[in-house]
Design a protein that fits this description.
Layout (H helix, E strand, L loop, with lengths): L8 E4 L5 H12 L3 E6 L2 H14 L4 E5 L5 H11 L4 E4 L14 H29 L2 E6 L12 H21 L4 E8 L5 H14 L3 H9 L10 H11 L11 E4 L9
Parallel strand pairs: 1-2, 1-4, 2-3, 4-5, 5-6, 6-7
Helix pairs in contact: 1-8, 4-5, 6-7
Length: 259
């Protein structure tokens, strides 16, 4: 399918690896020029070089922490006018309710709620002026079904979801669509880290911990970054113009819900 976005320009946050990279590659395959961001310059430059060699698109890189004002300023200066924004950031550490204090919640809010809101506020006016734009926020399946050990993520991402629910319906009339992608377990470094945590907590090897989690997924496997990226690219496409303020769960059926 031709997504109709060849020649558009996209900013993809946290895109040196994992789900962010999957989104960047899917957009590049559709002919979208990219601004890639991550905190680590080495992995970021390696990813950019691979995408440049594989797809006929331009790739700009900005090594910065988007949870900080200085990081966002550097990123926005390099990005300029973009048609597509993919917000993404690593999740806060797991734990239990008694582990977290105010500073932990502020850090989670800065990374997973306030930073994406700041980027939307900075970039959507240009999209509105041009009459077209797409924003996809990578949140978490925990927004729909909270995960006890991910209380910081549950809280911050739920706040972003509420913001998007109202804002998306205000900007849709200008051809700007905001939606959220809610990943379940995908084969990324984050999944490996959580598997390691289960392994340590239960005194089992990592392969067993992974098998246990796979058994809870109807698809009986972890997702891939490539298929997640394809879902992102579709939401960024010309064909998604009537999809507004939605939360698409990409989790292999793990969340057992009718709606």
């Amino acid at each position: 399918m031709d997504l109709g976005i060849k020649g558009k320009r996209a900013l993809v946050c946290a895109s040196s690896k994992g789900l962010g990279r999957g989104c960047a590659e899917a957009l590049a395959e559709a002919g979208v020029n990219l601004v890639l961001n991550a905190r680590g310059a080495e992995a970021l430059e390696a990813t950019a070089a691979e995408i440049r060699s594989k797809y006929d698109v331009s790739v700009t890189t900005v090594a910065a922490d988007v949870s900080t004002e200085d990081g966002r300023a550097a990123l926005l200066a390099a990005a300029g006018d973009v048609d597509i924004l993919v917000n993404n950031a690593g999740g806060p550490p797991p734990g239990v309710w008694s582990d977290w204090d105010r500073d932990d919640f502020i850090a989670a809010l800065d990374a997973n709620m306030l930073a994406p809101i700041a980027l939307m506020k900075a970039l959507m006016p240009g999209m509105i002026d041009r009459g077209w734009g797409r924003v996809v926020n990578i949140t978490s399946g925990s927004v729909k079904a909270p995960i006890p050990q991910l209380g910081l993520s549950n809280s911050a991402r739920a706040g972003l979801t509420g913001y998007v629910a109202g804002t998306s319906r205000q900007v849709a009339q200008h051809g700007v669509n905001i939606n959220n992608l809610l990943p379940g377990i995908h084969a990324t470094d984050r999944a490996a880290s959580l598997d390691a945590g289960v392994s340590k907590a239960q005194g089992i090897d990592i392969a067993t911990a992974k098998a246990q989690r796979e058994a809870t997924i109807p698809a009986r496997r972890y997702g891939t970054a490539a298929e997640f990226g394809a879902a992102c690219a579709f939401l960024c496409s010309q064909h998604a113009g009537f999809i507004v303020g939605q939360n698409l769960v990409v989790d292999g059926g793990a969340i057992n819900a009718t709606i």
